[in-house]
Specification:
single chain; mainly alpha; two-stranded antiparallel sheet; 68% helix; globular
């Protein structure tokens, strides 16, 4: 196996381990919500004036999938839609108090996971972080270009619909 394959398999293995370790706590603490809902809540909580287009682009899914998801979250009272006085065409989303509570629980879980893994990251130098971040950025840009070039519909590869 060459180094390229080792890196890809290493990333996949790391991701699977992280998911495996985090999933039980996430499911227990956020049991009434799918991961797509929680990540949508997180995005809206972090980004002012979130709309269907921005959410769809961020999650690499169709606008239809996001419309379905946001309608469900509105119905559950987790997010609400609003319009700006100067733009009655565009619809934006923000968290309700209930949505803020869910987002806070999610943030606290991430802090807990970060604390668990802190010992590893404390050993990484700034230079090593820079090298890793540079690689991840390059690879991500390459994959974005491939998705665009191939017109890949990745909406069926997750739980957004």
């Amino acid at each position: 196996m060459n180094k390229e394959e080792q890196v890809i398999l290493g990333f996949r293995d790391l991701l699977n381990k992280i998911v495996s370790l985090n999933k039980p706590k996430m499911k227990d603490s956020l049991k009434d919500h799918k991961s797509s809902e929680v990540h949508c809540i997180e995005y809206i909580g972090r980004n002012v004036d979130s709309n269907v287009t921005k959410l769809a682009e961020s999650f690499y899914v169709t606008r239809g999938a996001i419309s379905k998801l946001t309608k469900k979250l509105i119905k559950k009272g987790i997010i609400e839609s609003y319009q700006k006085p100067d733009n009655k065409k565009e619809i934006y989303f923000r968290l309700t108090p209930q949505g803020k509570v869910i987002n806070k629980v999610h943030e606290e879980l991430h802090k807990e996971f970060q604390e668990r893994d802190k010992a590893v990251f404390e050993q990484v130098t700034e230079e090593q972080f820079d090298i890793m971040l540079n690689f991840v950025e390059k690879y991500s840009r390459h994959l974005d270009a491939e998705i665009k070039k191939q017109g890949v519909d990745i909406t069926n590869q997750n739980d957004f619909e």
